[in-house]
Amino acid sequence: MTLDAQSKYPNRRTYVVKVRSDAKPDTLAGRLENIVSGQQREFASGRELLDSIASDLRAKADEPSAGQAHGQPEEKAP
Fold this sequence. Notes:
The protein is α+β, with helices and mostly antiparallel strands. The protein has helices at 46-61, 66-69; strands at residues 15-19, 30-34, 40-43. The chain contains two helices and three strands, in the order E-E-E-H-H. It has a three-stranded antiparallel β-sheet with strand order 1-2-3, covered by helices on one side. A hairpin with a 5-residue loop joins strand 2 and strand 3 (40-43). The longest helix is centred in the C-terminal third of the chain and has 16 residues, at 46-61. It is elongated, with a radius of gyration of 16 Å.
């Protein structure tokens, strides 16, 4: 059995979703915050919430991993 060094749920993908007090099922609104970066985004619908998460994931995908940032080679998935 091989131990995977990378977590299936890395901290950099941890979010807090704060829903406004006046939000309703058909008018979802609030704020999304990335726990690691502290970046916050307002959303005014479920679609905007999902788009905010997707945008954050795309931005993080473009950044080098911690190992690459320190000159270590990137590990390839099997």
